[in-house]
Design goal:
Phosphorylase Kinase, domain 1, alpha+beta, two-stranded antiparallel sheet, 333 residues, 2 domains, Aminoglycoside 3'-phosphotransferase, Chain: A, domain 2
């Protein structure tokens, strides 16, 4: 904090500001609020600073290009003020609106209304975000190879490596990963935010009782299955969503797939895509939480790790071919 404040004072040529950490998710990026006590060259008195670590510097330009793309597509994002590649700093307009996570922790009775509205926002986003080859998000996709990488890195190395005392047959994981990666390798070019969860979504309550939304942390966006972002917020590691609401919104989303995106899956195939997406996403999350706890010893990640594993185990129970893999993961809970 002290070193960062000193570097910022040189950058701004002033010490008349305060620096406050903002609790983020489990990524390597860290966030701060900067409050200026005198006029600055940023509009307004408060700015959000995203600090990107050196190994992830490519994220800076990806963030900038995808932010410009989303704005062209009329998807609200906090205004990007400045980007400095030498330091890994991105300066954004500070959103006075709460994140969805914080809002629903304070207003749990509004969970259904907010998530119904968010599902509509997601459908609108997917319709607006037409393909543009020069946008970084459409230069990469969720294909077989990428899913295989995530199973290898997040599940085998980070998650199972965290429980290194638990023996398992590597062929079991390979067969499991191959089945899910093959089914989820979808070529339809739907824009996927990639981390569409409550900590990355700002909610703006309106006077008429409805909601508007804006998004952040989209630098890893790519294209792939339309249900990935749906699963990300309905099976959110930071927010408990009632099962009946999950089922209702999954069904409603299915009814809009063909009219909105021209995707005519039968219901059984759609449900398999949803189930496999839950399994893949939550095991990835569990691996990330395990790695973050290993590095930081922050106890909050252990609770999130456990809940992510439990969410993955529920749909796995539907598929007899996953029985042995499920038994292995149950030993970790």
């Amino acid at each position: 904090m002290e070193a960062l404040a000193e570097a910022l004072s040189r950058f701004f040529n002033t010490t008349y500001f305060t620096l406050t950490p903002i609790e983020g998710g489990a990524s390597s990026r860290i966030y701060f609020r900067i409050d200026f006590r005198e006029e600055s060259y940023f509009p307004g008195d408060a700015v959000m600073l995203m600090v990107v670590p050196p190994p992830d510097m490519r994220l800076l330009t990806d963030y900038m290009h995808i932010d410009y793309y989303l704005r062209r597509m009329q998807v609200p994002t906090p205004r990007l003020y400045e980007l400095d590649q030498s330091t890994g700093w991105i300066f954004l307009k500070f959103e006075s609106a709460p994140t969805l996570e914080n809002y629903l922790l304070q207003h749990p009775l509004r969970t259904e209304d907010a998530l119904v509205a968010l599902s509509g926002f997601l459908r609108s986003l997917q319709q607006k975000c037409r393909r543009e080859d020069h946008c970084p998000a459409f230069q990469r996709r969720f294909d077989y190879d990428h899913y295989q990488f995530e199973f290898s890195f997040h599940v085998q190395e980070q998650l199972l490596g965290f429980y290194d005392q638990t023996p398992y047959d590597s062929a079991l994981l390979l067969d499991f990963a191959k089945e899910i990666s093959t089914v989820l390798d979808i070529t339809h070019p739907v824009f996927v935010h990639r981390d569409f969860q409550s900590s990355n979504i700002f909610i703006h309550p309106r006077a008429d009782g409805k909601f508007d939304f804006s998004v952040i942390d989209f630098q890893d966006a790519r294209y792939g299955t339309p249900v990935y972002d749906l699963v990300s917020f309905l099976w959110d590691s930071y927010l408990a969503v009632p099962e009946n609401l999950q089922a209702r919104l999954v069904e409603e989303f299915y009814r809009h797939l063909e009219p909105d995106l021209g995707i005519g899956w039968d219901r059984a195939h759609y449900q398999r895509i949803v189930d496999y997406s839950i399994i893949q996403r939550k095991l990835r999350d569990a691996g990330i939480f395990a790695d973050n706890y290993r590095r930081s010893k922050n106890q909050r990640y252990l609770a999130h790790l456990d809940s992510a594993l439990r969410m993955a185990l529920v749909p796995m129970a539907k598929y007899p071919a996953f029985r042995e893999m499920r038994q292995l993961l149950e030993r970790l809970v």
